[in-house]
Specification:
The chain has 12 helices and 21 strands. It has helices at about 15-30, 45-50, 75-80, 80-90, 110-125, 175-180, 240-245, 260-265, 275-285, 285-295, 305-310, 365-385; strands at about 10-15, 30-35, 55-60, 95, 100-105, 125-130, 135-140, 140-145, 150, 155, 185-190, 195, 210, 215, 220, 225, 230-235, 250-255, 310-315, 325-330, 350. Strand 16 and strand 17 form a beta hairpin. Helix 1 (about 15-30) packs parallel to helix 5 and helix 1 packs parallel to helix 12. The radius of gyration is 24 Å and the shape is elongated. The two termini are about 25 Å apart.
Length: about 375
Amino acid sequence: MERPQPETTVAIIGAGPAGLMAAEAAAVAGARVTVYDQMPSPARKLLMAGKSGLNVTHDGPDFSKAYACAPLVPMIDAFGPPEVRTWMEDLGQPAFTGSTGRVFPETMKASPLLRAWLARLDGLGVTLVRRARWTGWDGTNLTFADGNQVSADATILALGGASWRRLGSDGTWAGFPELADHVAPFQPSNVGFRVTWSAHMAKHFGAPVKNTGMIVDGRCHRGEFTVSEQGLEGGGLYPLTPLLRAGAPLALDLKPDLTQAEVAARLAGRGKQSLPNHLRRTLRLSPVQIALLQEFARPLPDDLAPAIKHLPVPLRGPNDIDQAISTAGGLRWDALTADLMLRDRPGVFVAGEMLDWEAPTGGWLITACLATGQWAGRAAARFAAG
C-alpha cells in the first residue's frame, strides 16, 4: 500500500553535512523534504575532507568545550560523538578511534558513507535538486537563478561558510539584504599563516616540523606543522588560529622536553664541529629545525639556548580565507531563537557553518554541522506541522 504523502513541506538550501542531516531529521519527523544545491553533486566539501581519511568526530573528554560557544552545547549534547558513531553504524559504516582520539569510518573514506546516507534519504522520500542556485526571497517564496520559485511550510538554510569556494561554500549569502545585518564578518579558521622566507628556506618547503612546541599567549602547545612556500601550516598550528589571528605572537621551542639549562649544558664544548653537526649530535635537531633557528635567530649569539627555547616567528597574518579549512563568523546567535530560527523571518532556520562558531579540526567541525542540522531539521518539521 502506497504511503500517503505528508502534508507539510520543508525546503533545504545546501546539501553539505548540515543540510543532509537536516533533511534526514525533518523527513523522519514526517515532512516532505526537498534539498536544493547549487553544485552538480552533494557534499563536495565532505568528500574533499575525507580524501586523507574522514575524521567524523572525536572521543576525547569535554568535547563541547572546544567550541567555546554556549548556544551550541545543547545541540552537541543531543547529537555528540556517541550519537554520531551510532548513526554511522546504522548506515553500515562502523567506526574506530585512532590513537589521538579521532574517530574514522573503518573504510577511512567519505564516499561509502555518503552513498549509504543518500540511499537512506531517498528511502525517506527526500528529493535532491542539483544545480539550483538560491538567490533569496520574493515575499515568502524562495527564488533561484533559473527563475523558479518555491513555496514551503518551513525552510532550512545550510549554505556553509566562506572557504573552499570551488566546492560551493562561497559565502555570498551573507550579502543578501534579508541576512546581511545579522552576519558577523567571516574570518579564516584552521588556516596557515604567512611568513616571508629567505632564499635558503626553499629546500625545506614541505618539510614537517616535529618535536617542537608552539608558544602562544604564555603556553607551549605541542603538535606537528609544516614549512610551506607561503609560511607555516598544519594540524598542530590550526587550533591556535583564533589567538594568532587576533595578533598574538608565535615563538617556537625547538626542544620542549629539555629546560634551557639542559640545552645549554648539551651545547657546551663544541670544539671544531660545524654548528649544524653540533646541533644534530647534541640536541638531535632536524635539518628543518636547524634551518628555522638560522632563519630567525641571526646573527646567531654565542649562547644559543635562549633562542632554541624561545624562537620568535614573525607572522604576516593568516592565509586567504579561501585557503582555510573553515571560517569563523556567520549568522549571529542573537538573530536566532533557541530552535535556530531567524527571529525576523519565522519559518526560516539555519544550520552548519552559516552559524557564528568555530572549532578545531579533529572531528569537531563535522560533528557540529551534523548536530545543528539535526536540531534545525526537527525544529523546522515542528514548525511546518504547526
